C-alpha cells in the first residue's frame, strides 16, 4: 500500500472528490480501459469511497484518453510518473527498468546493450544514465535478496567490488560458478542480518557498515577459494581499484604469487583505519599495477618522485567528539570508496577536518578502474575532498606529514627544475587555476557531482555528518598562517 494512502484519501474527501483527471488508454481489441500514467492509489480510494457512501461526487471521475502505443510505452509512462512523485524505492525502479528492457527486447527480437537501452528509454521520455541502468540491472540480477535495502550507492560499491573480485577469479583460473554460489550465500546472509537487526526496518537502506561487511565477506570467500592470505587479496583488490586501468591476468598472478612468498606470518585481515591514523596500506598495491605512461603523459623519469605518507602523526588540536567524529569518518570513507579514490585518502588529526588527499601518481590514477564510472565524476569527487580538507591553504598544507608529496611540493621553489606544485598539479589534470592563480574546483566539477544520483546522495550524507562533527569546532584552526591560498606563482 502507498505509505501516503491516508493522506491522499483525506485530501480527496476534503475536496469533495477527485478533481484532477486521470489518464487512461486501451489495448487494441480490449473492452476495458486502463490507467496510463499512474493514479492507481487515487482510483482505488475513489472506488472505495463510492462503495462506502454512494455519494454522487465519487461516482464519476474525469479522464484524459491517450492513444495506445505499446506495452513498453505503458511501462515507461508509469516509471516516469513514479519518478515524478519520488515515492518509489531504488529496487522498485530497478524492477520497472528490467520489465521495460524485457518488453523492448521482446518487441525487437534481440537483446539490448546498455547504450541501446538508454536510447530506447530516452525515446520514451525517460532519463536513465548508463551507470544508473547498470546498477538497476545488477541489483535485480544479483542482489534481489536485499530488495528495498538497496540504493544507488551501495549497489555501485558492491558491483564495482564484484568486478574487481572477478578479475582475480579469472586471473587465478578459479571456478567462477563456485564463487558465484558463495556470493549468493553472502548476499542472502547480509539480507538476513539486515532484517534481523532490531533497530533497522526492512525498508531502510543498507548502511555503510553493513555494506562494508558484505564486501569483506566477498574478500574472505575469495581468499578461501584461492587459498591466498586475506591481507594479500585485499591489497591486490586495492591495487586493481587504484591502478587507473585493468592489469593483465599474468600481472595479477605474479603479484599474488610474489606476495605469498613475502607474507609468511602476516595477519589475516587489514587493520581498520581510525581517526588520527594515516592510510599507508594502499601505496604498495597501487605501485604494483601502475600503468605505463601513454604518449600523452610525461615520461616516468620526468615525473616528481612519489612520496608515501608518514606512518604516524601527532595530533596538534582536539578532535571532534568521538560519536560525531566517527560518523563523519564513516561517511568520508564511504564517499571515497563510492568514487574509488580511497587509495588517495589519508586520515591525519593535524588537519582541520582530520584528513587530506595525497597527490595521484599521475593522471591515470584518477581514471576509475570501473569503466562504468565517469572519470570526470571521480575527479570532481577528489577535488571536492581536497577543498573540504582545506589543504589548498598554505598553512594547512604545512600541517601535513613531512613525507607528504603534497606538502613537499607546496614548500618547494616553484622554479625548481625537479618539478613544482604547479607542474604536478597540471600533470595530474586535477583542476583549474582561477583568475587570481588559485587552484580549485570549476563549475563543471560541481555540476558533475550534483548531476548524478551517486554524487548528490553521497555528498548530502557527507555534509550532514560533517555538520554534526564539526559545527562546534569549525574555528579551531583559523589563524593567520592558514589564510593564504596556494597560488600558481608561489609555493
Descriptive report:
The protein has 491 residues and is mostly helical. It has 2 domains: 5-143, no CATH class; 274-483, no CATH class. 51% of the residues lie in helices and 4% in strands. It contains 19 helices and 7 strands. It has helices at 5-14, 40-53, 71-85, 90-108, 114-123, 130-142, 152-171, 176-196, 208-226, 230-242, 249-262, 283-288, 322-338, 375-389, 394-397, 405-410, 421-427, 443-451, 453-470; strands at residues 22-25, 34-35, 63-65, 345-347, 355-357, 432-433, 439-440. A 3-stranded mixed β-sheet has the order 2-1-3, with no helix packed on it. β6 and β7 (439-440) form a beta hairpin. α4 (90-108) crosses α6 (130-142).
Key features of this structure:
19 helices, disordered C terminus, 51% helix, two-stranded antiparallel sheet, mainly alpha, 491 residues
* Number of H- or I-type helical stretches: 19
Proportion of residues in extended strands: under 5%
Global structural class = mainly alpha
Mean pLDDT: 75
If strands are numbered along the chain, what order do they take across the biggest sheet?
Answer: 2-1-3
Radius of gyration from CA coordinates = 27 Å
Task: Give me the count of strands.
Answer: 7
What is the count of distinct domains? 2
| Oligomer description | single chain
User: Low-confidence spans: pLDDT under 50, at least 5 residues?
Assistant: 262-325, 432-438, 474-483, 487-491
What is the element string, with H for helices and E for strands? HEEHEHHHHHHHHHHHEEHHHHEEHH
Morphology call: globular
Largest sheet: 3 strands, mixed
Overall helicity: 40-55%
User: Could you give the distance between the termini?
Assistant: 62 Å
Amino acid at each position: 500500500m502507498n505509505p501516503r494512502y491516508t493522506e491522499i484519501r483525506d485530501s480527496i474527501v476534503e475536496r469533495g472528490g477527485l478533481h484532477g483527471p486521470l489518464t487512461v488508454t486501451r489495448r487494441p481489441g480490449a473492452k476495458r480501459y486502463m490507467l496510463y500514467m499512474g493514479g492507481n492509489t487515487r482510483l482505488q480510494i475513489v472506488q472505495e469511497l463510492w462503495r462506502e457512501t454512494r455519494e454522487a461526487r465519487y461516482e464519476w471521475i474525469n479522464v484524459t484518453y491517450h492513444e495506445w502505443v505499446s506495452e513498453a510505452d505503458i511501462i515507461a509512462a508509469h516509471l516516469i510518473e513514479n519518478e515524478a512523485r519520488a515515492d518509489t524505492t531504488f529496487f522498485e525502479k530497478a524492477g520497472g527498468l528490467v520489465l521495460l528492457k524485457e518488453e523492448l527486447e521482446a518487441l525487437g527480437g534481440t537483446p539490448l546493450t546498455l547504450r541501446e537501452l538508454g536510447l530506447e528509454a530516452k525515446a520514451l521520455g525517460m532519463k536513465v544514465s548508463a551507470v544508473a541502468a547498470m546498477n538497476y540491472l545488477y541489483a535485480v540480477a544479483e542482489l534481489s535478496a536485499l530488495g528495498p535495502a538497496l540504493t544507488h550507492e551501495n549497489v555501485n560499491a558492491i558491483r564495482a567490488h564484484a568486478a574487481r573480485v572477478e578479475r582475480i577469479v579469472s586471473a587465478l583460473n578459479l571456478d567462477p560458478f563456485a564463487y558465484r554460489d558463495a556470493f549468493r550465500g553472502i548476499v542472502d546472509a547480509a539480507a538476513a542480518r539486515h532484517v534481523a537487526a532490531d533497530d533497522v526496518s526492512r525498508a531502510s537502506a543498507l548502511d555503510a557498515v553493513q555494506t562494508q561487511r558484505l564486501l569483506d565477506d566477498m574478500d574472505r570467500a575469495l581468499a578461501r577459494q584461492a587459498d591466498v592470505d586475506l591481507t594479500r587479496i585485499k591489497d591486490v583488490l586495492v591495487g586493481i581499484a587504484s591502478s587507473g586501468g585493468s592489469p593483465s591476468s599474468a600481472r595479477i598472478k605474479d603479484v599474488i604469487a610474489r606476495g605469498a612468498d613475502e607474507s609468511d606470518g602476516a595477519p589475516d585481515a587489514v587493520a581498520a583505519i581510525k581517526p588520527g591514523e594515516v592510510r599507508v596500506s594502499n601505496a604498495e598495491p597501487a605501485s604494483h599495477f601502475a600503468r605505463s605512461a601513454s604518449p600523452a603523459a610525461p615520461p616516468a623519469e620526468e615525473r616528481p618522485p612519489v612520496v608515501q605518507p608518514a606512518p604516524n602523526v601527532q595530533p596538534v588540536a582536539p578532535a571532534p567528539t568521538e560519536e560525531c567524529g566517527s560518523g563523519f569518518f564513516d561517511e568520508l570513507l564511504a564517499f571515497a570508496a563510492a568514487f574509488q579514490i580511497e587509495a588517495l585518502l589519508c586520515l591525519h588529526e593535524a588537519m582541520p577536518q582530520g584528513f587530506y588527499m595525497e597527490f595521484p601518481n599521475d593522471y591515470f590514477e584518477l581514471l576509475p578502474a570501473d569503466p562504468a564510472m565517469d572519470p570526470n565524476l571521480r575527479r570532481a569527487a577528489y577535488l571536492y575532498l581536497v577543498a573540504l580538507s582545506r589543504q589548498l591553504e598554505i598553512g594547512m598544507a604545512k600541517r601535513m606529514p613531512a613525507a607528504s608529496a603534497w606538502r613537499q611540493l607546496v614548500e618547494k621553489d616553484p622554479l625548481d627544475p625537479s618539478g613544482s606544485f604547479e607542474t604536478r598539479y597540471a600533470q595530474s589534470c586535477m583542476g583549474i587555476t582561477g583568475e587570481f592563480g588559485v587552484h580549485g574546483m570549476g563549475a563543471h566539477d560541481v555540476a558533475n557531482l550534483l548531476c548524478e544520483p551517486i554524487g548528490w546522495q553521497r555528498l548530502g550524507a557527507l555534509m550532514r555528518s560533517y555538520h554534526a562533527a564539526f559545527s562546534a569546532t569549525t574555528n579551531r584552526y583559523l589563524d593567520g598562517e592558514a589564510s593564504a591560498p596556494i597560488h600558481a606563482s608561489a609555493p
